[in-house]
Design a protein that fits this description.
alpha+beta, seven-stranded antiparallel sheet, about 40% helix
C-alpha cells in the first residue's frame, strides 16, 4: 500500500505541530481532538488526555487497525481510537485523519445538518457533500465508529459527528489540516448564507475533484 507512512521521529513531530496549529486556530480546545496516521501495518495516534504543548514524539502510540490493540508506546492511545481505526479500514484511500471540534462545523453537527458542496475549494479537497451521523452518546466509541462509517460514503473526505465535532481526512498531515480549514470555512459560509446557498452540480463537483487530484499544479 502506497497510501501510508514510515514511523519516524519527523512524522511524530509533524503530528504534534499540526495539533498545536489546531489549538492556535481555535479548532481544538485543551485535549479535545486527535490525529491518526496510517503506517504500513498499523496506525499512529495521539495519546489520550495529554496537552499538545507537552507532547513529545515518543508519546505517540502505535495501534493495530483491526482491533485497536496497542502495539507500542508508553501512553494510552486516544479514547477515539476505534473511530480512527474504523474509518481508516473503511476508506483505504485516506492516510491521515484529523478530528477536531471546529466551531462552525460543530454547529452544523449540533443541528444534524449535512454540508453540501457549494464552493470550489470544497469540491476540490473535500470531494463530496459531508454528511452527519446520528447522535451517539459520549463513551460509546465503537457505536460512534460504526455511525461515522455508515454515512461518510466513498468519496467525501470528511464526516460530521452529531453534537460532537468533525473528522477530516487527507493524503498527508498538511492536506488533512488544509481540508479541515476548507471545511470550517464552508460551514461558516453555510451558516451565514442560510437558504440562499446554491450547491454546485454533482457532475461539476466530480470534475473539480478530479482536476485537483490529477491535474492541479501538474503538467
Amino acid at each position: 500500500m502506497n497510501n501510508c507512512f514510515d514511523d519516524t521521529t519527523e512524522l511524530r513531530q509533524e503530528i504534534i505541530d499540526i495539533c498545536l496549529k489546531l489549538n492556535k486556530l481555535g479548532l481544538c480546545i485543551a485535549t479535545w481532538g486527535n490525529i491518526s496516521v496510517r503506517l504500513r501495518n498499523c496506525m499512529l495516534i495521539t495519546p489520550s488526555r495529554m496537552d499538545y504543548a507537552a507532547m513529545r514524539p515518543e508519546d505517540m502510540v502505535a495501534v493495530a487497525l483491526d482491533d485497536g490493540r496497542k502495539l507500542s508506546g508508553d501512553r494510552l492511545p486516544s479514547s477515539e481510537t476505534a473511530l480512527h481505526g474504523a474509518l481508516l479500514n473503511y476508506r483505504p484511500d485516506i492516510a491521515v485523519l484529523v478530528h477536531s471540534h471546529a466551531p462552525y462545523a460543530s454547529a452544523l453537527a449540533c443541528a444534524h445538518r449535512a454540508l453540501p458542496v457549494f464552493v470550489e475549494d470544497m469540491a476540490q479537497i473535500i470531494g463530496a457533500a459531508v454528511n452527519c451521523t446520528a447522535y451517539v452518546p459520549g463513551g460509546r466509541h465503537q457505536d460512534l465508529a460504526e455511525a461515522a462509517c455508515k454515512v461518510i460514503g466513498q468519496t467525501a473526505m470528511a464526516v460530521l459527528l452529531a453534537n460532537h465535532g468533525v473528522v477530516v481526512g487527507g493524503s498527508s498531515l498538511q492536506e488533512a489540516l488544509t481540508a479541515t480549514l476548507v471545511l470550517e470555512k464552508a460551514a461558516m459560509i453555510q451558516i451565514n448564507a442560510g437558504s440562499d446557498i446554491k450547491p454546485i452540480p454533482e457532475d461539476q463537483v466530480t470534475e473539480e475533484r478530479y482536476r485537483y487530484l490529477y491535474k492541479y499544479g501538474k503538467e
